[in-house]
Design brief:
Blueprint (H helix, E strand, L loop, with lengths): L3 E5 L5 E11 L2 E10 L2 H16 L8 E2 L13 H12 L5 H19 L9 H8 L3 H13 L28 H10 L5 H10 L3 H6 L5 E2 L4 E4 L2 E2 L5 E2 L7 E4 L2 H8 L15 H9 L2 H4 L5 H14 L4 H8 L4 H4 L8 H14 L1
Antiparallel strand pairs: 1-2, 2-3, 3-4, 5-6, 6-9, 7-8
Helix pairs in contact: 2-3, 3-5, 7-9, 7-12
């Protein structure tokens, strides 16, 4: 019953759907139906429908098969599926998200399975993708999720999406390291450096910030856009704008700059140039310093100061606190209570 799949309704009930596809006398047939109470009932419906066609029934053929190899979904290669997904995503995802998926696919996935038929991908093929870099798996998971929606025939193999391994030893700067790094940086990069530490904003959000987004009177920053690494202005990574406080550290960083018009960018440094300047700090600081480390530095200092994770998540723009949990180990006071109980019992 490869063409029968279970799904959950909005009320949590399990129902079954059928995706029936076959070729008979040069004509490609495809029928879909859902709402069946049992898998057996769904399979019976599929067998009757196929038998009806093969024995000369009256149901009309859905698609006339042409000589083009891509007309029959069972013949689609992984490349063909991905190209169709690009068109499907254009109405659902940001351009930067599509560009990111395209980059990951063409650099890391295409050379491995691009020419293979999608419906014939083996368990070894899927496990090979799952066992690679987690970003590759994220891209393939998106393909796997949306492929049925463009009419692709799913493989019999099972996609076991790996869980991202979170490194509990985050790289962030200690206060003395941050001060030294700020002194070593070229002067033109110091404003964005200190502003990043003072706000926790992503690099793209910093480069997309406009002077009109800063409310000095209420001491607020409106984070409502980012400069995509693939070009163009988009919404922030979470897809939602947010308002964060203007810290004194960030305010001092702005004092290093000459204010511009409301629509002009606050920071005019290049993404690559700033990244290279940060990379040059790795030897004197002794850590793998990158622009994103400044975001970790802000979050780490906030958590160590006792700021609740839910508040840190809102400032950072995390969709849920699950991502922010990576900083939880920096506040082990709740674990210390258990150790203290043991000490008290032995005292």
């Amino acid at each position: 019953m490869d063409n029968v799949q279970a799904y959950q309704t909005g009320k949590g009930h399990v129902r079954y759907r059928v995706d029936l596809a076959f070729t008979h006398e040069g004509i490609f047939h495809r029928y879909r139906q859902q709402g069946f109470e049992t898998a057996k009932e769904a399979a019976q419906w599929a067998r009757k429908r196929e038998l009806l066609i093969r024995t000369g029934g009256t149901v009309e053929a859905r698609t006339r098969q042409s000589s083009a190899p891509g007309d029959d979904p069972r013949g689609w290669t992984v490349d063909e599926v991905f190209n169709r997904l690009i068109e499907y995503w254009k109405t659902r995802h940001k351009a930067s998200t599509i560009a990111n998926n395209a980059s990951k696919y063409r650099c890391r996935i295409q050379h491995r399975i691009g020419k293979k038929r999608w419906c014939e991908l083996s368990q070894r093929d899927l496990d090979g993708i799952a066992g690679g870099h987690w970003r590759d798996a994220v891209t393939f998971s998106s393909m796997w999720k949306h492929a049925p929606r463009i009419g692709a025939v799913m493989p019999a193999a099972r996609w076991n999406a790996p869980k991202r391994q979170i490194n509990q030893r985050l790289i962030f700067l200690e206060p003395d390291e941050a001060k030294r790094a700020g002194e070593l940086l070229p002067v033109e990069y110091r404003p964005i450096y200190w502003f990043a530490i003072g706000t926790g904003m992503r690099l793209g959000e910093l480069l997309g910030l406009r002077w009109g987004d800063i409310d000095h009177k209420r001491r607020l920053i409106h984070v409502q856009r980012q400069l995509s690494p693939y070009g163009g202005i988009t919404t922030p990574k979470s897809g939602k704008s947010r308002i964060i406080p203007l810290s004194r550290t960030a305010e001092k960083a702005l004092d290093m700059l000459s204010p511009g018009l409301p629509d002009s960018p606050v920071f005019t440094v290049g993404r690559s140039a700033f990244g290279e300047a940060m990379h040059a700090l790795q030897a004197p600081i002794g850590k793998a310093v990158t622009p994103h480390v400044l975001r970790h530095t802000f979050a780490s200092w906030a958590v160590q100061a006792g700021v609740p994770l839910v508040v840190v998540a809102r400032v950072l723009g995390h969709a849920t606190t699950a991502t922010t949990e990576v900083y939880a180990h920096l506040t082990p006071s709740h674990l210390q209570d258990g150790v203290s109980a043991v000490d008290a019992a032995l005292a």
